[in-house]
Amino acid sequence: MPISNISKQFGNAVRSRRIASGLSQEKLAEKAGLHPNYIGKIERGVRNATLDVSNRIARALKVGLPELIEEAQQRRSNAKK
């Protein structure tokens, strides 16, 4: 089953926030208690993150999960235009 566009946009939002925070994938993974390869797959839209994983990533980025999801939805809306 293909990954949805919202998952890709969520990954883009994670990548954007990670870079803006000055974190490497490895450092973000460490803070979130995840494997760096998993972070990379989420950022590329290859993996669909669960709510638990999404929340762990948001907390590691020091942002609320709703804010991260909203950013992904905005990216999705902008991509449709």
Report on this structure:
The protein is mainly alpha-helical. It contains five helices and no strands. The protein has helices at 5-20, 25-32, 36-44, 51-60, 65-80. The mean pLDDT is 92.
List unreliable stretches of 5+ residues.
Answer: none
| CATH structural fold name | 434 Repressor (Amino-terminal Domain)
Based on secondary structure, the structural category is: mainly alpha
Strand content: under 5%
Whole-number tally of structural domains: 1
Distance between the termini: 25 Å
Rg from C-alpha positions?
12 Å
Name the CATH class.
Answer: Mainly Alpha
Q: Give me the count of strands.
A: 0
Element string (H = helix, E = strand): HHHHH
Largest β-sheet summary: none
Number of helices: 5
In CATH, the architecture is: Orthogonal Bundle
Q: Which homologous superfamily in CATH is the superfamily? A: lambda repressor-like DNA-binding domains
- Shape field: globular
Average pLDDT, to the nearest integer? 92
What is this structure's SSE topology?
Elements: H1 5-20, H2 25-32, H3 36-44, H4 51-60, H5 65-80
Helix pairs in contact: 1-3, 1-5, 2-3, 2-4
Offer a few descriptive terms:
81 residues, 0% strand
Give a brief outline of the structure.
This protein is mainly α and about 80 residues long. The protein has 5 helices and no strands.
